[in-house]
């Protein structure tokens, strides 16, 4: 199925390790970049949890929707629409993709992934992130990638200024791009911040026959 191929790619792109990147920009841009990263860092530290609706769009325009649940540090859940038998869950140490149709489970470390920028509020963004121009003072764009490992791809997070959101910023979504230029976009709506979320929200049922009934 088409969506399965795209989802596998998405998992591979967004879970790839990242390293420090240099910012080859002039002094005024450096100051602006530093202020932007500080604002994003403040937002992350001020947001202990978030829920949102998401729409995922691939390079062919195929769209899938679902519910995102995030709890820092380290926990995230992508619950897809009912006709998509996939689930992605981060439990604080690893990110797991469960395919209930073929009863397969794949797992990657969270701490070495671009998604770690969202899940770990204590990470120093200045060490591995780059601010991109947006043409608007109300929109902030931060790119995370490892130039030494292009096969890992790139993730670009987009924030908008919102006085009602933590530290005045709201995560609008992100774009993942792999080394073959396969592009996946995640758009968020109906964000709710710092709501009570039980750790049980990040458990899942293992579909593999020999481990049926076990939760991750």
Describe this entry's structure for a reader.
The longest helix has 20 residues, at 27-46. Strand 1 and strand 2 (63-71) form a beta hairpin. The chain has 216 residues and is an alpha+beta fold. The chain has helices at 2-15, 27-46, 116-119, and strands at residues 49-58, 63-71, 75-80, 86-91, 94-99, 104-109, 129-132, 139-145, 154-161, 169-177, 183-193.
Binned strand content: 35-45%
Query: What is the succession of H and E elements?
Result: HHEEEEEEHEEEEE
Q: Assign a percent range to the helix content.
A: 10-25%
**Which class do the helix and strand fractions yield?**
alpha+beta
Radius of gyration over alpha carbons?
17 Å
Overall geometry comes to: globular
From the N-terminal CA to the C-terminal CA, the straight-line distance is 26 Å
Question: Could you describe the largest sheet, including whether it forms a barrel?
Answer: 11 strands, antiparallel
| Number of E-type strands | 11
Provide the low-confidence segments as ranges: 5-31
**Strand order in the largest sheet:** 6-5-4-3-2-1-11-10-9-8-7
* Rounded mean pLDDT score: 79
């Amino acid at each position: 199925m088409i969506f399965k191929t795209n989802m596998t790619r998405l998992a591979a792109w967004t879970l790839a390790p990242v390293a420090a990147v240099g910012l080859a920009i002039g002094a005024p841009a450096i100051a602006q970049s530093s202020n932007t990263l500080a604002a994003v860092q403040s937002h992350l530290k001020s947001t202990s949890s978030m829920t949102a609706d998401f729409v995922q769009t691939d390079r062919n325009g195929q769209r899938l929707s679902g519910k995102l649940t995030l709890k820092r540090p380290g926990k995230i859940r992508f619950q897809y629409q009912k006709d998509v038998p996939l689930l992605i869950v981060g439990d604080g140490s690893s990110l797991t993709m469960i395919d209930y149709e073929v009863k397969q489970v794949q797992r990657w470390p969270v701490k070495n992934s671009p998604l770690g920028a969202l899940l770990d509020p204590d990470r120093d963004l200045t060490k591995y992130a780059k601010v991109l121009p947006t043409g608007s003072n109300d929109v902030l764009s931060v790119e995370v990638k490892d130039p030494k490992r292009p096969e890992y791809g790139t993730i670009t997070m987009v924030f908008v200024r919102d006085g009602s959101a933590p530290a005045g910023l709201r995560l609008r979504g992100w774009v993942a791009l792999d080394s073959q230029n396969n592009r996946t976009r995640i758009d968020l709506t109906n964000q709710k911040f710092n709501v009570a979320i039980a750790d049980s929200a990040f458990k899942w049922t293992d579909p593999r026959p020999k481990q049926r009934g076990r939760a991750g």
